Target: ATP-binding cassette domain-containing protein
Amino acid sequence: MGTAVRVSGLTKRLGRTQALAGVDLRVETGRVHGLLGPNGAGKTTLLKTITGLSRPDSGSLELFGAPFTRGVLRDVGALVTQPGLWSRYTAVEHLRLHARLRGADPALIPRLLADVGMADHADRRVSAYSLGMRWRLGIAITLLARPRLLVLDEPTNGLDPVGMRDMRALLRRLAADGVAVLVSSHHLDQIAQTCDEVTVLVGGTVRFAGPLDGLAWDGDLEKGFFALLDRG
Model:
């Protein structure tokens, strides 16, 4: 169905730290691609670069088959940092405001609230929301413009087990509808239950990239992941 993201030889230094050191990444349309790695591996830096929040030092980035430009970001939905929400506004008020700003159809709002499990909290102010509820609303906002690429950093952040299950199901539905989904996580179980392909970053370099079952060792994803880390 096509390649949504193609990263080649991407480098980025943050102070004295080489956050990305020649990273390659490919994300296909209609697939859920997971980023795995320990703290400081470069996952968030890579996501920020793909979504235009950070500029690489070198390397190339293509979105939807063309070199990166700011204009192409209109087809990208991203939640990489804490969602910027107003405590005295409700979920519906946030979505109506963002719909006006983005030229999105406000008729989508009830369905989006249901998709992220917020239909019963639509008229509550954000000040009463838990962390998980804030993330759910942030994801709903990213989906307003019907993005072709969805980029999420720790999408199950703050969610309870039911919320995690529902979020996994939502990401799978989006992929089935032709959206390219790129997610990062520290949680092997969430990646295992959600993703088609996975890229493992360690120290700003790619240690593995390919189908999820290719990372497993004797059928055990955790063994395969830690084997990569143990190689130094």
